[in-house]
Write a structure and sequence with these properties.
Elements: E1 3-8, E2 13-22, H1 24-35, E3 44-55, H2 60-73, E4 80-85, H3 89-104, E5 110-115, H4 118-125
Parallel strand pairs: 2-3, 3-4, 4-5
Antiparallel strand pairs: 1-2
Helix pairs in contact: 1-2, 2-3
């Protein structure tokens, strides 16, 4: 799987890193696999896209669909944060599109932001590496 993740239960944080060529199926698969786990409800998340070589261009409506799926899996009782680290301009732009769709979704309880560095992302989340 081109997206690996680690759950830091002490920090209530999911750290993910994507590699290689990334498809929308893999992104949707990650969302379903990881965020269906009961033990991480209410955790913050950081995904590092800096090692992605190529993102197979998703249709813009699929980004909206991903945001809707993710919002449907959000904890209703806890507000959380999701930071996307994207050094590449294309990945950064897709991240911003996702951020906009999450912000506009009434079911979303997760604040999303896109960053160029891991340090900035972790500072925004309120965690240190």
């Amino acid at each position: 799987m081109p997206i690996e993740f680690h759950c830091d239960h002490g920090k209530r944080l999911v750290l993910a890193k994507a590699y290689g060529i990334l498809t929308e199926e893999e992104i949707f698969g990650y969302q379903r696999e990881v965020w269906s786990r009961e033990e991480i409800i209410g955790y913050d998340e950081v995904i590092d896209m800096s090692e992605v070589e190529k993102i197979v261009s998703p249709r813009s409506n699929r980004i909206r669909d991903l945001a809707a799926l993710a919002a449907s899996m959000d904890s209703r009782s806890t507000r959380t944060k999701f930071a996307i680290v994207a050094t590449d301009d294309f990945a950064f732009g897709l991240g911003r599109m996702y951020e906009a769709h999450r912000t506009l979704n009434d079911r979303s309880t997760r604040e999303v932001a896109v960053f160029r560095t891991m340090e900035d992302a972790l500072a925004w989340i309120g965690r240190k590496k």
